[in-house]
Amino acid sequence: MLSNLREIRHDALSGIARASSLQDIEKMRVSYLGRKGKLTEVLKGIGGLEKEERKLVGKSANEIKKELEKAISEKKKKLEGRGVKGKDIDITLPGRTPWVGRRHPITICADEICDIFTRIGYSLVEGPEIETEYYNFEALNIPEYHPARDVHDTFYLEDGRLLRTQTTNVEVRVMERGKPPLKIISWGKCYRRDSPDATHSPVFHQLEGFYVDRNVTFRQLKGTLIYFAKQFFGEDIKTKFVPSYFPFTEPSAELYISCSVCRGKGCRVCKHTGYVEVLGCGMLHPNVFRNVGYDPGEYTGFAFGMGLERLTMLKYKIDDIRLFYENDIRFLNQFGP
Ligand SMILES: [Zn+2]
User: Fold this and answer.
1) Region of residue 250 (left: phi > 0; alpha: psi -120 to 50; beta: else)
2) What domain range is 188 assigned to?
3) Is residue 97 a part of any domain in this protein?
4) In whole angstroms, what is the distance from residue 166 CA to residue 163 CA?
5) Is residue 94 a part of any domain in this protein?
6) Is residue 170 over pLDDT 70?
7) Is residue 149 domain-shared with residue 43, that is, in the same domain?
8) Residues bordering ligand 1, an ion, CB closer than 5 Å
9) Three-class DSSP category at 254
10) 132 φ, ψ to 5°?
11) How far, in Å, from the CA of 309 to the mean position of ligand 1?
């Protein structure tokens, strides 16, 4: 009789554990504890047993009854907790995919450009966004009344310092600290008092690079920047250098590439010229070298600077700079990881 009880207990508990719905658990309750349930039948039959056995079996059966009642009510609670508005949740369904962050398209392009230059020996450095007039202008051959200051409509701080208008400030700081040969690139935020429109923003990003050593030539400048343009925009683009003016380089030039939108045929982006300007460059001005204590008779060098928004827009054919700052997830999700 006792072994029969043990068997009932074992079967009942494993049945309760397997039950996967409230209906299952109710069936289990009826078949063991119901009026004609297996355990109820045992309890009913106790009367016909010898006194000693009746005591033992009765005690054991009552203990098992309590144990099963407890197991059934706990399982019921568990199954009820899983239901929402009376429905069971299908736990085999996959969960919601978590949103994964991505790099901003400006960062993607900056990283790519840094890769292109570090492959040919350039090192990446950072410079301060809050700068003195000296590093932002004077050391770069832009004295106080120089007309170039007009195009750099500057945000000044109360203490006389300013938000840098160009990443060129890094050049002077690096040259002051070190001795040639120097091959440096740097990128970051710049600030000018521009009203936001499709091509202007008061905060924007520049990437700057320079190479200083003995006997650095304009040919090396051209070779380096054509290599960069082909790596970044594709081997099939055409390039041309057009004379230009910057206070801290002499001679100065702008690099143009064949328009990636119309492939040189002429369109709105290239103003129907077939070419678009991608960066400014030139041989570093002797005055800049004098300001950092280099002998212009001994060293030469070139520098280049580009607007990262402009390059990113050309690369991905984006026609409005404001898209970069609106943080519309539908826009940002189109770019790589
Ligand atoms: Zn075009």
Assistant:
1) beta
2) 105-332
3) no
4) 9
5) no
6) yes
7) no
8) 259, 261-262, 267, 269-270
9) strand
10) -90, 160
11) 18
pLDDT surpassing 70 at residue 267: yes
What is the Å distance from ligand 1's center to 228 Cα?
Answer: 20
Can you give the pLDDT at residue 189? 93
Q: Does residue 100 fall inside a structural domain?
A: no
pLDDT in tens, 60-78: 888 888 988 898 888 888 8
Centroid of chain to Cα 167: 23
CB 184 within 8 A of CB 276: no
26 is in an annotated binding site: no
Residue 83 has what pLDDT?
A: 53
Number of domains in the chain: 2
Beta bridge partners of 162: 131, 156
**Is position 337 within any domain?**
no
Pick the closest to residue 113 from 287, 327, 315, 283 (CA basis). Answer: 315
What would the pLDDT profile of 205-252 be if each residue is shown by its tens digit? 999 999 999 999 999 999 999 999 999 999 999 999 999 999 999 999
Same domain, 31 and 156: no
Distance CA 122, CA 234 (A): 21
Beta bridge partners of residue 255, listed in sequence order: 241, 279
CA of 314 to the centre of ligand 1 (A): 10
Q: Do residues 153 and 188 share a domain?
A: yes
Is residue 243 a contact partner of residue 277, using CB atoms and an 8 Å limit?
A: no
Domain boundary among 62, 88, 114: 88
Mark whether 199 and 76 lie in a shared domain.
Answer: no
Percent of the chain at pLDDT exceeding 70:
97
- The C-alpha atoms of residue 117 and residue 131 are separated, in whole angstroms, by 26
Amino acid identity for residue 318 in this structure: I
Q: Tell me, in angstroms, the distance from the centre of ligand 1 to residue 312's CA.
A: 16
Q: What are phi and psi of 333, to 5 degrees?
A: -70, -10
**Coil, strand or helix: which one is 249?**
strand
CA–centroid distance, 257 to ligand 1, in Å, is 10
Same-domain status, 230 and 319? yes
Closest CA to 260 of 316, 200, 336: 316
| Cα 276 to ligand 1 centroid, rounded to whole Å | 8
